[in-house]
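TEACHING EXERCISE
Course module: macromolecular assemblies
Task: Read the component lines below, then compare them to the predicted structure of the full complex.
Student: A.B.
Group: 4
Components provided:
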Amino acid sequence: MNIHTIADHLNSLADNSDTGMDFDCQPISGEVDVLQITLLGREELPIFLSVTDDQILCISYLWGTDEVKAECVNTMHESMLEMNIPMPLSSFSKIGDKYVVFGALSINSTFEDIEHELAVLSNNAIEVIDDMGDYLL
Amino acid sequence: MSIFKKIMTAIRGGASEAGEAIVDANATRIFEQEIRDAENHLTKAKRDLTGVMAEQMSANREVTRLQREITEHEGYVAQALEKGDETLALAVAEKISTLENDLSAQEQAVNSFTGNADRLKELVKKSERQVTEHKRQLSMVKTTESVQKATSAITDNFSSSNSKLLSAKDSLERIKAKQQKFDDKMKAAEILESENSDSSLTAQLKAAGIGSQENSANSVLDRIKAKQK
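Instructor-supplied answer key:
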């Protein structure tokens, strides 16, 4: 499983995805290959997928630390922690100065698992931004 | 220092920005070698364990055989005594005493094999836990590094393509607007669809003479006639 086989699969789905989502994949080359996946109608919130030795990581950037209302940081952190378990398949993290929502899959996952993961991650990202909107500028 | 703390220190210390490795590549290689060595030991320990367990089983079988033979010979002694053949009884009794010596030797062997097997099993379990733990730690280091590298690839891509990252709220607004537009389209299509089917249904009813009919001259005349009565 590498980003290219995943990209080929997702691009070939077209209108036939199990999740009703339309995926568009673009590989980004670098020291680690990354796949930028955009979902039709949600181009503003792409998902970045990378494959390591033992897992497939799917990450969606949420907001930067500079977008959080200063007086709300702690409350927001608490809300995020509390939401971490109820939120299906995804978890929160922070990379540099950006908050992210991510999901990690086994390297042995099927294409269907990956597709499902991406759809759920995207839904989670949108819902989280909506729910945390009060804390954001 | 635990690997967790090392990673946190490295991230807080800005290792991500400098592209500096959390644990230098050489250390990672040594760690990987250690895991491989431990796995080799584990394979050997498992092989040893199989050998010991096989010997334990064979010693157990021998114990059962000896016990059976002793019981058998004890019967012979009784029979010889019944017949009053003291000499024969003594000869058999000597045989029994040899068998009993063998039995106690075998029982000791079984005990020692069981002890060895238990110890090896414990060792295998411990080594397995250790290898799993090492692998988990290594995976944490590698994942952190690969995420850092991936992040820098993503950031480079954004800056090179000049795509401006919107704020989260703006992104959400746009996505919602697109969703709303899509929903509106779907609803419009549905309304259109239902209007079409309504009108076609009315037409069908009319053709069948059901429902309100168009006012014809005859019907008007009938109505007026009815009023005059």
